[in-house]
Design a protein that fits this description.
Elements (H helix, E strand, L loop, with lengths): L9 E6 L3 E2 L5 E2 L5 H13 L4 E5 L3 H15 L2 H5 L1 H7 L2 E4 L2 H12 L4 E4 L8 E2 L1 H9 L6 E6 L6 H6 L2 E3 L12 H14 L4
Parallel strand pairs: 1-4, 1-8, 4-5, 6-8, 6-9, 7-9
Antiparallel strand pairs: 2-3
Helix pairs in contact: 1-4, 1-8, 6-8
Length: 194
Amino acid sequence: MRKRETKAAIHIALIHYPVYDRRERVVSTALTTLDIHDLARLAKTYGIKGLYIVTPLRSQQALAKRLIAHWVTGWGARYNPTRQEALALVKMADDLESVAQEIEREEGQRAKTVATAARRHPLARPFKEVAELLREKGDTPYLILFGTGWGMTKELIEQCNYVLEPIEGNGYNHLSVRTAAAIILDRLLRGEVP
């Protein structure tokens, strides 16, 4: 099977704020080092230009920076150079606007945003349609957002340029963000959509 070529520069963001908790209160969620490791490796595998961990909490940023430093410049870099390559893609941000500004500086224009969600959204677009957008010629960068907790807030999703349809299973719909991101990136970037 041949890999389909992606034209756009693609970045991803793991959103820890603003997201919902189980009672639909807006909260900041705690990051997990496993998410950072696995999403960085996923990003490297699929040619993603950057992985942004979005949290306003300084304690969470400090934890992530310590992990990243270990694997990028510390002992971990010498121990596992392939992990170093993946973790070098990770950047921290206070909020989504900071991410948008950084991508604009890097790419020369503002990224189009694609929200992902486990819940159905009336404006959701099929995987195939979004995959075609990513393959269009042009300089437009894209930023794909993955939420934590019980999902990104409605307001954040509605600020995005596109909303992706949810992953459909057999009725059970509670994937880890790492698993969902892997399925989504594979469908969008390899073009194999059910």
